[in-house]
Design brief:
The protein is of the alpha/beta class. It is built from 37 helices and 23 strands. The protein folds into four domains: 252 residues, 3-Layer(aba) Sandwich (Rossmann fold); 215 residues, 2-Layer Sandwich (Nucleotidyltransferase, domain 5), CATH 3.30.420.10; 85 residues, Taq DNA Polymerase, Chain T, domain 4; 142 residues, 5' to 3' exonuclease, C-terminal subdomain (DNA polymerase, domain 1).
């Protein structure tokens, strides 16, 4: 599920008390108090959903007496007995852990904290990392780059910065501070008169407890000095008491803690016995036989199942009704949410209305800016600002999950309306995409037909089509409600249907650790945008137009007459009817085919006219797509353009972008460089580019386990020269550029399953010579052919291939009877694990950077992701520091069998930085 082991440890004993005091009294159907059990169950259900690891365990205290009591009998001696209502809940919480099929671990003579510390140390030694679900200050001494805490109530990570904020020192000095200040709760004596601030100051000044006590006699005379001298031994004892043991014998080996699916029957039966209705629904376990929420006062209504009818839905036009739906959403613990707008451009869209669903068949629509009709006026709509103010606390409530289909769009719309905080979220589009990239589309309508056997109301059916289409704001409220509320209803049902599959398809880590965190990251990048140089773009457009006109004259001369270069029909007549060139094929419509592959083949055979047409088309595309379009798409106020990243389009997991499409700017041509020069930094800033070097070749060397290639990357050799030396038997010293170029073409061509014909065309050699090169390559690196054969077989057997990080890339045409389509699918299958692995790595890097960049204090912004490159904007003064930081973090984003290398550049524009 994940590249490295990730152990999640729940401080079960600590959470019991926190939940008991945080929640109101509750009882199960038998009258037993269960408020702490209910809190624990909710926490565990959310943990399994939101914070996936490869390994998981809940750690409990086995009893009160530990080695610390033998050392210091007063340790925790004054603690009162647990509250009477809490005592019966201890056993129930262990039952809950068993019902979720999660290991429960305790060991007599040791505290839960010692077990947690020992397991955290063990997973570190195994090369993994650890998340401790607790906010206990005593566990903060364990925090390091491989270990973090997670506050189970606030759902906030606790890392070095948070420890520093609490104690005034780094995690490795927490023990010294605690030894000085003591702890009255646990009867840890410490040094009288020294509190948290004083302890932190002493540690900052002298380094550690031993140095402080050694320096005490020489300190300025004061009460503090005397106290340090008089209570030095108490401080040393306190240090022993607060220091967590990392060498406790592990009751269960790490391998026994692997994440396991709960038995749904067992879990459902236990939840039913407790009356935990909302947890059953939240986990998609179906309707409850005895629907009773554990509460002293509230009786819940039976929950609709996914078999509930679609509608009728409610139109919300009063605050009382809105408040009632908000309450329902809170009680459910999750709800689906959707926005209706007047634009597909999320940054420019204005809210027309919004809908939410709290259970299958239970959904409502809130119209905000409908214009109404004579037959159905819309004058009774609620004020948009009042509605948004009412919704803000709910959307920011971390205990209530918000479910979207294409969440990034809705988050951008809500941000534009003033709601910046929406958390936590799930996205059914990405939940599906993480499991089935390439298998089918990820749009809501298609997913609904596929998983729910339901055909949703179409947008065209409510707004019309073509010239008869009306804006959604003019759709009558009854019809708008049917359409909009159904969208939320469908989204909720899709969540119930799709989310359990994440574990079954081993896609949970991919979704939780990569795809879901990227939603907010990409939304922020889209809002930020990047500045463009409008005058330069206009000059470029004029130059392209002039060159195209000159080309057109030359092409007409070669053709012997004038014709419309943009007309495939006229071009086909020129090439195949009038010039009689070979290789022409007619389309089904009867016209000659003149796509780029046809023209390229003619050009490769020495025909000048098709070659010039290709050049003209390339220039025309650059002019229309970039030189002209970027000026039109530029925000007039900021001078920036804001691309839209598509998260669920490609088969391999790569991002794509549109409006503008930044993925297709030519990399190695002069025109591509000119376009990149038009992307600029603000005054006083620069752009920093960070690009993974030869990442797909590195992945190939790793997954195919090619020793010479791995060695070349380890030694930082020129990989193409090394390949040429290995394949053609030529010494590295004095390697000629032509031989190296041929090796480079094979290296990169192999990744894409290049044929002898394709290599021959690329190198301008005969197919026979190209075949000899490829045969020599496979003879030297047989592991690559084995990888290709193995990958093709995997695709044929399963219909998909898998990246090194667990992403499934489906190849639907792999079993095609048509040999050409099947061969193309096989090339896709060979490349997908490599291209998809590269996409996974840069996405991991983006998530890593989004967490760590704010901690650096650098005023930098991530602007763009294009294939294997990230682009940032930062002040000139901080550029070098940012480049070094980004390079380090990107190179550490994943660990494969060869080093990852990131090349950075700094410039006033993208071309300079790239």
């Amino acid at each position: 599920m994940s590249e490295t082991p990730h152990l999640v440890l729940v401080d079960g004993s600590g959470f019991i008390f926190r939940a008991f005091h945080a929640l109101p009294p509750m009882s199960n159907p038998e009258g037993v108090p269960v408020n702490a059990v209910f809190g624990f169950t909710n926490m565990l259900a959310r943990l399994l959903r939101d914070h996936v690891g490869t390994h998981l365990a809940v750690i409990f205290d086995a009893g009160r007496h530990t080695f610390r009591n033998d050392l210091f009998p007063q340790y925790k001696a004054h603690r009162p007995e647990p509250p009477e209502d809490l005592i019966p809940q201890f056993a129930l919480i262990r039952d809950a852990t068993a019902a979720f099929n999660v290991p429960a671990i305790e060991l007599a003579g040791w505290e839960a904290d010692d077990l947690i510390a020992s397991y955290a140390c063990a997973i570190e030694k195994a090369g993994g990392h650890c998340t401790i679900v607790s906010s206990d200050k005593d566990l903060m001494q364990l925090v390091n780059p491989k270990v973090e805490l997670l506050d189970p109530i606030k759902q906030k990570p606790i890392r070095a910065a948070e420890v520093m904020a609490k104690f005034g020192v780094s995690p490795d000095k927490v023990i010294d501070v605690q030894a000085l200040m003591g702890d009255s709760t646990d009867n840890v004596p410490g040094v009288p008169g020294i509190g948290p601030k004083g302890a932190a100051q002493l540690v900052q000044e002298y380094g550690d407890l031993d140095a402080i006590l050694a320096a005490a006699p020489t300190m300025k005379k004061s009460k503090r000095q005397q106290s340090l001298i008089d209570h030095a031994e108490a401080a040393r004892i306190s240090r022993t008491l607060v220091t967590l043991a990392c060498d406790v014998p592990l009751p269960e080996p790490l391998d026994a803690l692997g994440c396991r699916e709960p038995d749904q029957v067992v879990l459902r039966t236990w939840l039913d016995s407790m009356g935990f209705h909302s947890v059953v629904q939240r986990m998609g376990l179906g309707a409850l036989a005895a629907p009773r929420e554990p509460s002293s006062t509230v009786q819940a209504e039976p929950a609709p199942t996914d078999a509930a009818p679609y509608g009728p839905y409610e139109t919300i036009t009063s605050l009382d009704v809105l408040d009632r739906w908000i309450t329902r959403a809170r009680e459910a613990g999750h709800f689906a949410f959707d926005t209706e707008t007047n634009s597909l451009n999320a940054r420019q869209a204005e809210l027309v209305g919004l809908s939410f669903a709290t259970a299958p068949g239970k959904a409502a629509y809130v119209p905000l800016r409908h214009e109404g009709t004579l037959e159905q006026p819309a004058s009774n709509q609620l004020d948009p600002q009042i509605v948004l103010d009412r919704l803000k606390p709910l959307l920011a409530d971390e205990s209530v999950l918000k479910i979207f289909q294409n969440a990034k769009y809705d988050l951008l719309v809500l941000a534009g309306a003033g709601i910046e905080t929406v958390t936590p979220i799930d996205d059914t589009m990405l939940i599906s995409y993480a499991q089935s990239a390439g298998e089918h589309g990820q749009g809501m309508d298609e997913l609904s037909r596929l998983h729910l056997d339901h055909d949703p109301i179409s947008y065209d059916s409510v707004t019309g089509t073509g010239r008869a289409r009306i804006p959604f704001a003019q759709v009558p409220l009854d019809r708008a409600t049917e359409y909009a509320a159904e969208d939320s209803d469908v989204t909720l049902r899709l969540w119930n249907a799709l989310r359990p599959g994440l574990r079954a398809r081993k896609s949970l880590a991919l979704y939780e650790e990569i795809e879901r965190p990227l939603i907010g990251i990409l939304a922020a990048m889209e809002r930020e945008g990047i500045k463009v140089d409008a005058p330069e773009l206009r000059r470029m457009s004029a130059d392209f137009a002039s060159r195209m006109a000159q080309m057109e004259t030359e092409i007409h001369s070669l053709a012997g007459r004038s014709f419309n270069l943009g007309s495939p029909k006229q071009l086909g007549e020129i090439l195949f009817d009038e010039m009689g060139l070979p290789g022409g094929k007619r389309t089904k419509a009867g016209a000659w085919g003149t796509d780029s592959s046809v023209l390229q083949e003619l050009a490769d055979n020495g025909q000048e006219l098709p070659a010039r047409i290709l050049e003209w088309r390339q220039l025309a595309k650059l002019k229309s797509t970039y030189a002209d379009a970027l000026v039109e798409q530029m925000d007039a106020g900021s001078g920036r353009v804001h691309t839209s990243f598509q998260m669920a389009i490609t088969t391999t997991g790569r991002l794509s972008s549109n409006d503008p499409n930044l993925q297709n700017i030519p990399i190695r041509t002069e025109e591509g460089g000119r376009i990149r020069r038009a992307f600029i930094a603000d005054e006083g800033n620069v752009l920093v580019s960070a690009d993974y070097s030869q990442i797909e070749l590195r992945l190939l060397a790793d997954v195919a386990d090619i020793g010479p290639l791995k060695e070349a990357f380890e030694l930082k050799q020129d990989i193409h020269a090394r390949t040429a030396s290995e394949v053609f038997g030529i010494p590295l010293e004095g390697m000629d550029s032509l031989t190296r170029r041929r090796a480079k073409a094979i290296n990169f061509g192999i990744i894409y399953g290049i044929s002898a014909f394709g290599l021959a065309r690329q190198l301008s050699i005969s197919p026979g010579e190209a075949r000899r090169y490829i045969d020599a390559y496979f003879a030297r690196y047989p592991g690559i052919r084995d990888y290709m054969d193995r990958t093709r077989e995997e695709a044929r057997a399963h219909g998909f291939v898998t990246t090194p990080f667990g992403r499934r890339c489906y190849v639907p045409s792999i079993r095609e009877k048509n040999s050409a389509r099947r061969a193309y699918a096989e090339r896709q299958a060979i490349n997908a694990p490599l291209q998809g692995g590269a996409a996974d790595i840069i996405k991991r890097a983006m998530v890593r950077l989004s967490h760590k960049l704010p901690e650096t204090g650098l005023q930098a912004r991530m602007l763009l992701q294009v294939h294997d490159e990230l682009l940032f904007e930062v002040s000139k003064e901080q550029a070098e520091e940012l480049a070094a930081f980004v390079q380090k973090e990107m190179e550490g984003a994943a660990h494969i069998g060869v080093p990852l290398v990131v090349e950075t550049g700094i410039g006033l524009n993208w071309a300079e930085a790239h």
